[in-house]
Amino acid sequence: MQIFPLHPFRPEGDIPALRQQVRDLVASHEARWPIELRANCWFSFDEEFSKALGQAGLLGMTWPKQYGGHERTLLERYVVLEELLALGAPAGLHWIADRQTGPLLLRYGTEAQREKYLPGMARGEIYACIGLSEPGSGSDLASVRTSAKKTNEGWRINGQKVWTSGAHKSHAALTLLRTEEGSERHTGLSQMMIDLDTPGITIRPIIDMTGTHHFNEIWFEDVLLPHDALVGVEGQGWKQVVAELALERSGPERYLSSHMLLVALIDAMGPEPDAPTAQLIGRLTAEMWTLRQMSMSTIAKLAAGEDPVVEAAIVKDLGNAYEQALPRAVQAAVDADLAGKSDLSRLLSWILVASPSFSLRGGTPEVLRGIIAKGLGLR
Predict the structure, then answer these.
(1) Three-state SS across the chain?
(2) Strands 189-195 vs 172-178: parallel, antiparallel or unpaired
(3) Closest-CA residue to 60 (of 9, 30, 105, 112)
(4) Tens digit of pLDDT for each residue in 27-43?
(5) pLDDT of residue 1
(6) What's the pLDDT tens digit per position in 169-208?
(7) Which residues of the chain have pLDDT under 70?
(8) Assign residue 258 a region: left if phi > 0, alpha if psi is -120 to 50, beta otherwise?
(9) Residue 9: what pLDDT?
(10) Does residue 248 carry a catalytic annotation?
(11) Total-model pTM
(12) How far from 101 is each of 170, 206, 248, CA to CA, in Å?
C-alpha cells in the first residue's frame, strides 16, 4: 500500500510569479510585525493583512467564482500557504475560514449558507472558528455534551466549548452539537454555523504562557438559532467533522510552525557555520522537505475526492514531533541568551514555551496514533 505517492501535483500556472506576489505583499506589511508575532503566525492576527490577501485574490483560491473564489489549483493555494508560513506572516484571522470552514460549506452547506459566508471569507472580511473541544473531553470529540434541541422556533443551544482559537475575533463558529437527546459517542451529532453575535453567547479569553490571547471558551445559554443553521445532514456531524479534520491536519502549518526559528538560526550562523551546526541545519531541512512531500501527497488525495484520514493523521503526528524537536535541538546546539534581544534569542525563548501546544491542536499524538493504527488494520 502506497500511502504517500510521489509527485502528486503537476505544475500549473506561473508558480514563481505567485511566490513573488506573496513575498511582495508580505514585504509591504511586515514593518509593523514584531518577531514574536511571526513565530507562530497562523495564530497571530492582522486584519489589514488578511483583507489585503483577499483583495489580492489569495483567499478562497480554489473556490468557485460565484462565491467569491478564484478557481485556482490546490498547488497554487499550497504555494501561497508555504510562503506565508515561511515568512511568518500573521494569518490567524482568516486561516480557519479559508482552510476548512469554507471548503466544508462548499461540500455540505446549503446555497443560502454559501452565499452568506463564502464571499466575505474570500475577501478576508468574515472570520470563522471551530467549536469542537469541551471541558473534560480533551481530544475525545465523541463525548460532546453541548446540546441543540429542535423547537418550533429553531434550535435551542446550551453548553460550553473551550480552546476555541480566534473566537474573540470571529464572526461565526462551525460547531459540533448533540442534536439527539440520549445519543452517545458518534451518533446523534450535527454541525451548525453559529453567528457569534447571537444573544446568549459569551466568549471568555484563555491567556497562554506566552501571554498571548488566541484561545477562548464559549458559553451557550439558551441560544436560539434558526432551523437553517444546520450544516449538512442532521445526525451526520461526526462524518462531516472527520472530513473537516483531514483538511486541518494535513497542511504545511503542521511542519512550519517553528520555521522562523530555523531561518533565524541559518542567518545567525552565517555562510560558514561550524560542522555540528551545519549538520543540524541539514538534518532539519531534510526532515522538513520529507514532511512537505507527505503533506502535498495528502492534499492531492483530497483534491481527488478521497478522504485521507490516516495520511492526514500521520502528517500531523510527524509534523508536530518535528516542530517540537526543532527548538530543543537549536537550544542544545547554540549558546543563545534566552533573555537576549537578537531575533534568534527572542524566537527561541518564545517557541520553547509555545511548542508543547503544537501537538494538542487538531488532536493529541495518542488520538492520532489510534486513528493510524485503526486505519492500517493494526487494531
Answers:
(1) CCCCCCCCCCCCCCHHHHHHHHHHHHHCCHHHCCHHHHCCHHHCCCHHHHHHHHHCCCCCCCCCHHHCCCCCCHHHHHHHHHHHHHCCCCCHHHHHHHHHHHHHHHHHCCHHHHHHHHHHHHCCCCCEEEECCCCCCCCCHHHCCCEEEECCCCEEEEEEECCCCCHHHCCEEEEEEECCCCCCCCCCEEEEEEECCCCCEEEEEEECCCCCEEEEEEEEEEEEECHHHEECCCCEHHHHHHHHHHHHHCCHHHCCCCHHHHHHHHHHHCCCCCHHHHHHHHHHHHHHHHHHHHHHHHHHHHHCCCCCHHHHHHHHHHHHHHHHHHHHHHHHHCCCCCCCCCHHHHHHHHHHHHHHHHHCCCCCHHHHHHHHHHHCCCC
(2) antiparallel
(3) 105
(4) 999 999 988 888 878 77
(5) 43
(6) 999 999 999 988 877 787 889 999 999 999 999 999 998 8
(7) 1-13, 137-141, 243-249, 359-363, 365-367, 379
(8) alpha
(9) 55
(10) yes
(11) 0.86
(12) 12, 23, 10
Indicate the angle between helix axes 74-86 and 15-27, nearest 10 degrees.
Answer: 40
Cβ atoms of residues 238 and 142 within 8 Å:
yes
Which one of the listed residues 36, 134, 244, 248 is annotated catalytic? Answer: 248
